[in-house]
Each structure stands twice: as C-alpha cells, then as structure tokens.
Amino acid sequence: MSKSFDVVVIGAGPGGYIAAIRAAQLGFNVACIDAWKNASGGPAPGGTCTNVGCIPSKALLQSSEYFEHAKLHFSEHGISASNVKIDVPKMIGRKDAVVKQNNDGILYLFKKNKVSFFHGQGSFVGATESGYEIKVSGATEETLLGKQVIVATGSSPRALPGVPFDEELVLSNDGALRMGAVPKRLGLIGSGVIGLEMGSVWRRLGAEVTILEALPTFLGAADEQIAKEAKKAFDKQGLKIALGVKVDEVKKTGRGAKAALTIAYTDAQGAAQTLEVDKLIVSIGRVPHTAGLNAEAVGLQLDERGAIVVDADCKTNLPGVWAVGDVVRGPMLAHKAEEEGVAVAERIAGQHGHVNFGTIPWVIYTSPEIAWVGRTEQQLKADGVRYKAGTFPFLANGRARALGDTTGMVKMLADADTDEILGVHIIGPMASELIAEAVVAMEFKASSEDIARICHAHPSLSEATKEAALAVDKRTLNF
C-alpha cells in the first residue's frame, strides 16, 4: 500500500530539505527522501553541502587558519606561542562533529515542520492518475505516491578521465576532507573553489601544495582585477599555481605506505613536466547526479550533460515534476538551490516564487576571502555597457588595520548614466559577509550614491564598501 503525499522531495541537500520545509509551511503533506549515511549507517541529510562540501570545508579552513595565526601572527599581537602543533585526527573529529550537528539540525527541522523523512534511495516507478509512484530503497523498502515531485539529487565530483577516485591517493572533495595526516607533497588539479580552499587548508598545515589548472587565466569567472590580486596573495603564501596545463598521465608508484603518484603534464609553454605527489585532489568540476533516479521510467528529460531539463520556473517536461539545485542548469551553489527550493514550493501553492540569477553571490573562503555579485568589468566591456568603477583598499580601512589583515579591496561597478550598481567584487577579510550588503543593494536596484550616503559603523570593514561607492564618483574620504 503506497503512502500518499501532496509533495515528495527526492534529496535532502540544501535545495531538497528547504523545499520540503517550505512546502510543509504552506500546508502540504510532505515527504522527503535521502540516501546519505553517517559513519554508523544512520541518516545524514544535508547533501554534499553538509556532508562533504560547504560545512566541513569551512570547519577545516577555520582550524587551519587558527593554526597558521598561532604559528605566524600571534607574535604581532604580543602573544607568545611556542612549539605549536596540529593534531590532525582531532581536527577531523571536530569537523565531523560540526557535520553531525547540521545533520541532526535538519532532522529536527523535519520533525518540527511535520515533514515525513524516509532514509534511502528514491527512484521513479511510474506515473498514475493521482501522481507519481516513488520507490524508497533503504533498510526497508517502501513506495510513496506524490501528487507533486521535486527532484533535488544534487551533483557528484567529476573524475579525471582514466583516473578514478580511490579516496586514498586520488581524492575527490570527500577524500580531501578526511585525510588523517598532512601529506608532504599535495597535488591539486583544478584551481576553482574546491581546489583553492582545500589547497589552502593543507598548505597552512605544512603540505607543499601545487595546483595544476588547464585554463590559461586564473579565476576566470571573477573580475580580472580581483583575480590578479588573489593570485598575488596566493603566490606570496606559497601556493604553487601552474596555469595552461594539460595533464597527460597520472601513474601510481610505490606500494603500501610508500605509495605515491607521478603526474606527467605539459606546461603552458608546451614543455613536458613531471610532478611527484603523495596525494592528489581532483577538483575539475561536478556533474548532475541522476544515477538511480530511474528517470526513464517516467520519461523525465535529461540534457547532454545529464542535467534535468527545466524551464525558468524549474518545471520539467512532466506535469507535476520539478527539479532544483545542482541537478539543473545554473550555478552549482547551495544558496541558489535553497532559493529554487523555496520558489518551487511557493509555485506549487499557486504563489509567485522568484529567483534572481543576477544577484546570486559567489564566495571563495580562502584567506583572503573572495566574493562577488553581479557582472565583472570584463563582462560589462564585452556587453558594451557604459560604466563607472570605484575601488577602495583594505590597507586604508581602520578595522582591517586593527585586525592585521589589510590585503585586498572592494570594487564597485555602476551604470555610467543611471548610477545603478551593476557589480560588486571583494577580496579581503570577511568578504563572505560584506557581500550581503551588495546583494541587498542590487536587489533593490540601488545606486552607488545610495551606498555612499548610508551611514556605516566606524570602525568596520563595511566602511570599505561605502568608500568604494564614493570612489565611483571619485570622492573617497579616506584614501
């Protein structure tokens, strides 16, 4: 006998669990299915973000940053700390505890909002007059009937062709977060968000880190001026980043504890090079995860990338079936998935859910942090948009000086005719938090003059945003 629900959500990552909660808030009878397991085999909702992505990586970034501060920067504050050591297993244990807190928090939210949770793999069985049959394959097998279905199955790491992940020598983001000791030599393929964040963690802890990037430019998605500033900072820290690289072969050498890898690659000048590493993290992007969904049973349309095809409202080709997050088009960002999840739940309720792709912020949690929203200077030039630019360095910000963290700047781009803010780009301390003001401003179509006229607390890092807005009109007050 099938259990019937108004809405069945497949996947409990950021898009799925948020969609389920919002649908329940709107009065629907909701089920959410998720297959993630913790170490003891119990449910671990939260998807990639909570289990092997956003949350655990931030925990390790924080731990490694504290370690580096204690070693290199405490003395600047008059604090003596000798013989500073890192206990990697304890650090990993703390990361695991943070992950579990988030897993348990989601289970609590399901209970609070009366969402029925089913632990197992969710897959389509077929369509009926009343909706869709969904099979749950877990400790016990069940069949659910959903009048509406939201697919939020996320994404999986892309492997290097011919070099599968073994999570011992060749690591995905999962293995990169579970290393029990600091490798002497760490290689990374891909200088995107995961590569830079994981490279930063293990470099701070003592690994010699080399990043191989296929693209000829560094951080091509970011504003060029910000990317150059970031490259300069990472070079100074000791991250070795080689651009324009073609990986030719990855070969295992040695056995047991002495096992290592040799990477043969061609550099940007066309010269053959080799790199010996003890561990290799491959972070060359992610692919939509539809394995096990049995999409063909109901004729759910996928594109050539394996992503579920949706329209602007996240509707699939099937009536009553929606899809959100990494498994559909658009940036693979947890907060984008959340916004889509809320919007779809509201659309099912007959409301007008809304997601503005133009104001989705991007963040890289390195040190310095990098964050941006809106268009870059090069995009505006390519689009033929007349614009004005204003920048303000953290070197001239009182709070940044007090923190001892003055690397970077805030950059604001505004329409030359209307002064509407078109993009804000930040590299520096707490950029991940500062970008929120820019998102709000752009969502309300604020001008640079609006930000320039708003009183900002002193001393605060946010004053750099105000000063960048003043700089658009060439009237900074502190630089």
From TrEMBL:
Alphabetical list of InterPro entries matching this protein: Class-I_Pyr_Nuc-Dis_Oxidored (IPR050151), FAD/NAD-bd_sf (IPR036188), FAD/NAD-binding_dom (IPR023753), FAD/NAD-linked_Rdtase_dimer_sf (IPR016156), Lipoamide_DH (IPR006258), Pyr_nuc-diS_OxRdtase (IPR001100), Pyr_nucl-diS_OxRdtase_dimer (IPR004099)
Superkingdom per UniProt: Bacteria
Miscellaneous note of the record: The active site is a redox-active disulfide bond.
NCBIfam families per UniProt: lipoamide_DH (TIGR01350)
Keyword Flavoprotein among record annotations: yes
Pfam families reported in the protein's UniProt record: Pyr_redox_2, Pyr_redox_dim
Nucleotide-binding among keywords: yes
Active site: 458 (proton acceptor)
Disulfide bonds: 49-54
Residues that coordinate or bind NAD(+): 190-197, 213, 285
Principal cellular location given in the protein's record: cytoplasm
Residues binding FAD, per UniProt: 58, 122, 153-155, 326, 332-335
Enzyme category, top tier: oxidoreductase
Co-factor binding comment: Binds 1 FAD per subunit.
Family: Belongs to the class-I pyridine nucleotide-disulfide oxidoreductase family.
Subcellular location: Cytoplasm
Record domain Pyridine nucleotide-disulphide oxidoreductase dimerisation: where: 360-469
Chemical reaction(s) catalysed: N(6)-[(R)-dihydrolipoyl]-L-lysyl-[protein] + NAD(+) = N(6)-[(R)-lipoyl]-L-lysyl-[protein] + NADH + H(+)
Example of a GO biological process term: 2-oxoglutarate metabolic process
SUPFAM superfamilies: FAD/NAD(P)-binding domain, FAD/NAD-linked reductases, dimerisation (C-terminal) domain
Keywords, ordered alphabetically: Cytoplasm, FAD, Flavoprotein, NAD, Nucleotide-binding, Oxidoreductase, Redox-active center
Protein name: Dihydrolipoyl dehydrogenase
Cofactor(s) it depends on: FAD
UniProt-listed Enzyme Commission number(s): 1.8.1.4
Domain called FAD/NAD(P)-binding: residue spans: 5-341
